[in-house]
Amino acid sequence: MFAIVLLGLTRSLGTGTNQAENHPSLSWQNCRSGGSCTQTSGSVVLDSNWRWTHDSSLTNCYDGNEWSSSLCPDPKTCSDNCLIDGADYSGTYGITSSGNSLKLVFVTNGPYSTNIGSRVYLLKDESHYQIFDLKNKEFTFTVDDSNLDCGLNGALYFVSMDEDGGTSRFSSNKAGAKYGTGYCDAQCPHDIKFINGEANVENWKPQTNDENAGNGRYGACCTEMDIWEANKYATAYTPHICTVNGEYRCDGSECGDTDSGNRYGGVCDKDGCDFNSYRMGNTSFWGPGLIIDTGKPVTVVTQFVTKDGTDNGQLSEIRRKYVQGGKVIENTVVNIAGMSSGNSITDDFCNEQKSAFGDTNDFEKKGGLSGLGKAFDYGMVLVLSLWDDHQVNMLWLDSIYPTDQPASQPGVKRGPCATSSGAPSDVESQHPDSSVTFSDIRFGPIDSTY
Question: Can you name the residues that pair with 10 across neighbouring β-strands?
Answer without folding.
Answer: 7
